[in-house]
Amino acid sequence: MKTVTNCYLLNLAISDILPLIVSLPFEISFLPIEVPWGHLGCQIRALFAETSTNASILTISAFTIERYLAVCGPFRISSLSTIQRAIKVQLLIWFIAILSSTPYFYFTKKIDQQCFFDGNFQIFVTICLHISATCFFLLPAFILFLLYALMARRLYNVGLLHEVHYFATRTTDLNSLSLNAKQNRSIGYRPEQQRFQSVHHSLSRALTFPRQMTFHNGNYPPSRLLLHIQAMKKSAFKML
User: Fold this and answer.
1) Where does the G-protein coupled receptors family 1 profile domain start and stop, copy by copy (predicted)?
2) What is the SS3 string spanning the chain?
């Protein structure tokens, strides 16, 4: 529970193991034998089955949103990605999951040793099934597909732009050195003029192209793109 990722994984494990612990004993109701629980047992089984399923889907969606913010908005997520915030999100997930599963508790009853939806509420059951299919299947699937596509595009663009920035700056430096060498050969080598040209060239590069200046070790100063990449890495490692 020391990281946000562990909080989401623990919540996902609880929602997945809940049917095994709670709903599995009620599956005996499908057998043609008398069981100690009746109508209430079917209602509890339906409630926990729907709650665990909805909680799992919402947890995966929330975790995907956290990943998207870590990749596409690392500067903002670094201050928002906390364990306290993750716990609040998980409590909200369980509240929504239980609230959305409550109608199935009232619409389920036991008929001939099996659990069915009450035929008197067929219209309401149909509406609830359509809402559940939309909110807990179609919409989360669309969100996951969209966010992972945006993350893949962001990672591709960041890597591509970094390479373009690096090679473009290197090419500019090589062209500048080649041009200076040709000028020296054409007009003859004079130390005083060479020193003046070097100082003038350095000052003009510092004022006009500050991002293309190099340090003594050949590295480039951190640009906005490089800072974004570093923040993205920090936010990604923070989630591990």
Assistant:
1) 1-240
2) CCCHHHHHHHHHHHHHHHHHHHHHHHHHHHCCCCCCCCHHHHHHHHHHHHHHHHHHHHHHHHHHHHHHHHHHCHHHHHHHCCHHHHHHHHHHHHHHHHHHHHHHHHHEEEECCEEEECHHHHHHHHHHHHHHHHHHHHHHHHHHHHHHHHHHHHHHHHHHHHHHHHHHHHHHHHHHHHHHHHHHHHHCCCHHHHHHHHHHHHHHHHHHCHHHCCCCCCCCCCCHHHHHHHHHHHHHHHHC
